[in-house]
Design a protein that fits this description.
Elements lengths: L2 E3 L5 E3 L4 E10 L3 E9 L4 H5 L5 E10 L5 E11 L3 E6 L2 H8 L1
Antiparallel strand pairs: 1-2, 3-4, 3-7, 4-5, 5-6
Length: 99
């Protein structure tokens, strides 16, 4: 990590702060539940249209069409061209669905 200071003593870093948003992602073959991280002061949609090929998902749980958990991971990169639909969840709904 680099830290730069301007003449007034204000510092700048290359750390990007993001907000985790509980989400459900339907891919062409599976359902993914986890957290999509969005930059502060940006929209959920902006993260999907940022030009990156993959969408980072943390605390991911992947299920098959029958609802059986295939695997879980602390990090999963989902290829954006495999996403059929994506939906942010409220915190309350996310807790209910993880139970």
């Amino acid at each position: 990590m680099t830290i730069e200071y301007d003449e007034k003593g204000k510092y700048f870093t290359n750390v990007i702060h993001k907000i985790p948003i509980p989400s459900v992602i339907q891919t062409t073959s599976n359902l993914v539940r986890g957290f999509v991280h969005v930059r502060q002061n940006e929209r959920y949609k902006d993260e999907l249209e940022n030009g990156e090929q993959f969408l980072a998902v943390t605390d991911a749980k992947v299920t098959d069409p029958a609802g059986n958990t295939i695997f879980s991971s602390s990090f999963l990169a989902v290829q954006k061209n495999q996403i059929v639909w994506i939906m942010p969840l409220s915190e309350e709904h996310a807790r209910d669905s993880n139970s």
